[in-house]
Amino acid sequence: MAKSKKNEKEKLPKELTRNAWILVVGAIAPMLDSTMVNIAINKLQSDLHTSLDMIQWAITGYVLALAVAVPVCGYVVNHIDGKKVMQWSLLSFGLFSFLSGIAWNIDSFIIFRAVQGFSAGFITLLMTTLLMQITPPDKLGQLMAVVSTPIILGPIIGPVLGGAIVSGANWHWIFYVNIPVVIIAVLLNHFYLSSFKPFNPKAKLDWFGTLLLAGGSVGLIYGMMKGSTNAKNFFNSQMITFVNIGLALFVIYGIYNRIRKNNTVLPLRFFKSKNFTAANIGIFLAGIASNGPMLLLPLFFQNTKGFTAVEAGLMLIPQGLGMMVTRPLIGKMIDRMGARPVVLVSLAISLLGTIPFIFVHENTNLIWLGLVLFVRGMGIGGLQMPMMTDIFIGLDKQDIPGASVGQRIIQNVGSSFGSAVISAVVTAVVTSEIAGQMTTKLHQLAAMHTNLTPTVIAKAKTSVEKAVTLNGYQLGFLVSSIVLIVIAIPAMFLSQKKVNK
């Protein structure tokens, strides 16, 4: 009898579970879409008769529009029923997915993708923000376990599904496939999702603060992108200019927030909370530790193992399975023990699944790599979730939109920063080592009295490039491992609960 009561107590209320899964279904399409498009870059470039730089603008525009949407959405949910906002966001995402699929030139494609990204920004922020309004404090962990589902599925299923679609059909279907998912999400939303009261109807639109936060986010993210796309000269003039603009806008926002006495879209008084500050620092660092390797792993399997994009995506499935296995357990542990012990244990497991990649080579057994990735998934799956939960501890319901805006901005910038830094590390290793190793290789061949024909030189170059690239990946995983260790510092300031024996 006691055990039965305990199980009932641990379970999420049915209404809350229903609302959570309906919102998760709505977020699946944006999460998958953002990862599928990267697989189709070559096809898009060919069919739209454009350059790689212009195609990159479509991807960049999506990310930047998503960043702009975050503070705008924070204002909208203060004044309008969250259910209606979600419905219109889903319909907009579905419409502009269709328009992206029928885009007739690169200009129309870039515009449609940007609006699609703006809609996705609303959807992903609403998923967390709305549920925070109705979730009891002792159920936050279990709720975040549900909400994290599309975050886990996106990077794992997206590349595989995208590769299969491009190979079996064409790039248009990468966007058309969103439409049935959106239709299902809209129907579930309309008939089964509860209404959500506006968080703070009296709040006025903070246009200036919203523009400063959106501009600062765009500046930092775009600057990091310009650094990573020109990693041979990471600190190039464009990177420095846009990062400085982003930082300057955030500094101006700090001054503006002080003048307005925290009556802004993101009140900086939140950072007086130990939990809020520590969790956001941890989330930023986790963006480097998790997003960097997410970029490296497919490249490792393609460039070192010679896999296709689809095969590389399939190799990442064990990591996704590791995340899925621990997801329900992590939620209950957060509610029972607090964020600190869960993050520290997750860090240790993440290191066990990341450090082996520092020593991996082209002949490493695939089964062994699959097991390591499974362990890594178990650790990474429990890393950000507890910190995202800790952000909302002790906040009033009217403060939830502002706190969500801050968390999402920091997460977006951290993810972009992680991808850019790891990309720069790999490129720096390749450019610094390739000439010296090529010279050494040719000297070795000459010492062996090998006739240095063009074919022999070409084979030597391929061998050296593969070896040097592998060295770059290994250093990238080393950087990720170091950052994982550093996350332990802010983790010590997260919440911890006494466990009743």
In short:
The chain is an all-alpha fold and 501 residues long. The protein has helices spanning 2-10, 14-36, 41-47, 52-79, 82-101, 106-134, 140-147, 149-168, 172-176, 178-192, 207-229, 237-259, 274-303, 309-315, 317-337, 339-354, 366-380, 384-390, 400-447, 454-491. One of its GO terms (cellular component) is plasma membrane.
Descriptive labels:
501 residues; mainly alpha; globular; disordered N terminus
Draw up the topology in text.
Blueprint: H1 2-10, H2 14-36, H3 41-47, H4 52-79, H5 82-101, H6 106-134, H7 140-147, H8 149-168, H9 172-176, H10 178-192, H11 207-229, H12 237-259, H13 274-303, H14 309-315, H15 317-337, H16 339-354, H17 366-380, H18 384-390, H19 400-447, H20 454-491
Helix pairs in contact: 2-6, 2-8, 2-10, 3-4, 4-6, 4-11, 4-19, 5-6, 5-10, 6-7, 6-19, 7-15, 7-18, 8-14, 8-15, 11-12, 11-19, 13-14, 13-18, 13-19, 13-20, 15-16, 15-17, 16-17, 16-18, 16-20, 19-20
Kindly describe this structure.
It holds the Pfam family MFS_1. By secondary structure, the protein is mainly alpha-helical. The chain has helices at 2-10, 14-36, 41-47, 52-79, 82-101, 106-134, 140-147, 149-168, 172-176, 178-192, 207-229, 237-259, 274-303, 309-315, 317-337, 339-354, 366-380, 384-390, 400-447, 454-491. Mean pLDDT is 81; it is low at 1-9.
Structural shape: globular
Give the averaged pLDDT, no decimals: 81
- Biggest β-sheet strands, sense, barrel: none
Question: Rounded to an integer, what's the Rg over CA atoms?
Answer: 23 Å
Beta-strand share of residues: under 5%
Question: DSSP helix count?
Answer: 20
Straight-line N-to-C gap:
18 Å
The unreliable regions are 1-9
